[in-house]
Design brief:
- By secondary structure, this protein is of the alpha/beta class.
- It is 46% helix and 13% strand.
- The protein has two domains: 1-47 and 107-180, Rossmann fold (3-Layer(aba) Sandwich); 51-105, no CATH class.
- A four-stranded parallel β-sheet has the order 1-2-3-4, sandwiched between helices.
Amino acid sequence: MEAILRASQIERAVIGGLSLGGYLSLAFHLAHPERVRALMLFDTGPGFKSPEARAQWNRIAEAMARAFDKRGLSALGDSAEVRVSRHRSAQGLARAARGALMQLDSRVIESLESIRVPTLVIHGQDDPLIPVEAGIDTAERIPGAQLRLIPGMGHDVVPALAPMLTEAISDHTQAAGRTP
């Protein structure tokens, strides 16, 4: 992301992501806080402080990778959220599970209290993958973060929720544009 911002001659940007993308947005802020104007975090968690919890998470990530290796894209299942997604490569998902999904340390979760940019945390109350408590905890740890819990939303954004989410995102990015 930093290389894209630099190549685009963008000094600071609103950085956000869903699920793993939210975690990676937090990791980007940790590495390049001067590049972040604001954060938007959707259905995500900040990782784990406990080495045991990280090890358990990493075992789950490896199991997911093995499932993609063995069953291909059918390992995703057939939920409504999966039906609207556009995955093309089971090998890419397996590599992501073994790479970006793995958590090697607790630096991201330990950095939350130091975040000083406007932060919007949106979490589906029906998220089967990342418990809603992770979104609540993230928002509580980040000074001044706004928390929006969305009834009826699972782990991914479904089209019916797009207008409400678009409004929340628009309001947040407009407010962030007014920050120094």
